[in-house]
């Protein structure tokens, strides 16, 4: 995967587009019936003749339908055996390319690297470079090449060269016309180099063009229909999203109003309960006046309400002849609880009494206790 990404990264945008088109065509051919795929395919069937010690080996391959078969025939009947092989598989001899397989020692290979700017002139540069850097003459050789993108962005070219006399000699041995041979392979390896001797323009049949146009139009229509369906669905989803947002805002607004009303109702109920049950300032004043001894009097009475009803406290400041005894007196009251002196008792020389500061918590009625629990 890493090498594949590196190769793709080194390719130019034009090469990436071409590779994508080739992949798309191959995938489309796999989806079509075999007969239609064969008509649309750009490759041509070919026969490779290999002269061996036991006779001639004929290999017929057709990339359009994935056919690859081999058979052996005597050396003296190569032409007849080849014609029979082609006819037996429903092919026309004129549509089949003829090639020879020569020993690997008959080919010369060289590698060159060209700048990226020479990409569009490789067909001209590579033959000229061959004649300039090697002792070969153009009329004595056949040559071919393949190019690919190098990792540094330049163009890597691999070129093969063979002498014409090797091809002519093998064609004479097999009794084949040299002008009918279109390519030459070298070595026994399946990935052996190939030199194309002639590049014949292939005329496209009207039927192939029509089928290709129909397939392309069908693909375009299918793509347009898919795009239209997607656009419509997306528009419907956008409308639903907008409606959901509006409904969500309305629901949040209603929920906020309900919560506010609930809080107001709770607050109102609490106020009503406190007003009806919680002792007020007058009640505290009356009770303090009732239980306070005659030798004691107040200079300040302060009622403090806490965060809840249980936190209401009363603070009393004044003078008394027996200030410590006031704690038990207030604890025994039906209105006060948890009485305690908040500061040390000090004798006032002017009043002749003990100055005190006492704090007690207001006792809640039983009904109010149950409501606050």
TrEMBL record:
It comes from the Bacteria. The keyword Cell inner membrane does not apply. The chain crosses the membrane at residues 209-231. Signal peptide: none annotated. It comes from Bradyrhizobium oligotrophicum S58. The keyword Oxidoreductase does not apply. This is Fimbrial assembly protein. InterPro entries: Extracell_DNA_Util/SecSys_Comp, PilN. Residues 230-264 form a coiled coil. Keywords: Coiled coil, Membrane, Transmembrane, Transmembrane helix.
């Amino acid at each position: 995967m890493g090498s594949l990404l590196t190769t793709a990264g080194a390719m130019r945008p034009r090469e990436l587009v071409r590779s994508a088109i080739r992949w798309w065509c191959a995938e489309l051919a796999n989806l079509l019936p075999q007969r239609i795929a064969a008509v649309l395919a750009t490759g041509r069937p070919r026969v490779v003749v290999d002269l061996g010690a036991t006779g001639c080996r004929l290999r017929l391959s057709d990339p359009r339908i994935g056919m690859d078969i081999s058979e052996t025939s005597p050396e003296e009947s190569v032409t007849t055996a080849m014609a029979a092989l082609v006819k037996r598989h429903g092919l026309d001899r004129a549509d089949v390319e003829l090639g020879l397989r020569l020993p690997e020692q008959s080919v010369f290979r060289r590698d060159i690297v060209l700048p990226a700017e020479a990409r569009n002139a490789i067909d001209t540069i590579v033959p000229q470079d061959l004649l300039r850097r090697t002792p070969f003459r153009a009329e004595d050789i056949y040559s071919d090449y393949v190019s690919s993108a190098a990792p540094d962005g330049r163009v890597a070219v691999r070129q093969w060269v063979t002498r014409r006399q090797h091809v002519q000699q093998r064609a004479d041995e097999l009794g084949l016309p040299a002008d009918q041979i279109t390519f030459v392979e070298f070595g026994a390896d399946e990935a052996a180099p190939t030199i194309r001797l002639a590049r014949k323009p292939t005329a496209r049949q009207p039927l192939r063009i029509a089928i290709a146009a129909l397939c392309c139009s069908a693909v375009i229509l299918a793509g347009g229909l898919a795009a239209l369906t997607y656009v419509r669905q997306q528009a419907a989803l956008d409308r639903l999203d907008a409606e959901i947002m509006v409904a969500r805002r309305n629901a949040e607004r209603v929920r906020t109003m309900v919560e506010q009303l609930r809080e107001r109702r709770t607050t109102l109920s609490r106020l009503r309960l406190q007003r009806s049950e919680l002792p007020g300032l007058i009640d505290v004043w009356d009770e303090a006046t009732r239980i306070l001894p005659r030798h004691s009097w107040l200079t300040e009475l302060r009622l403090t309400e806490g965060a809840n009803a249980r936190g209401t406290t009363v603070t009393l400041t004044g003078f008394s002849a027996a200030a410590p005894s006031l704690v038990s007196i207030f604890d025994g009251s039906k209105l006060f609880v948890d009485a305690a002196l908040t500061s040390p008792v000090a004798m006032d020389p002017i009043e002749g009494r003990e100055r005190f500061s006492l704090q007690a918590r207001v006792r809640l009625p039983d009904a109010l206790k149950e409501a606050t629990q």
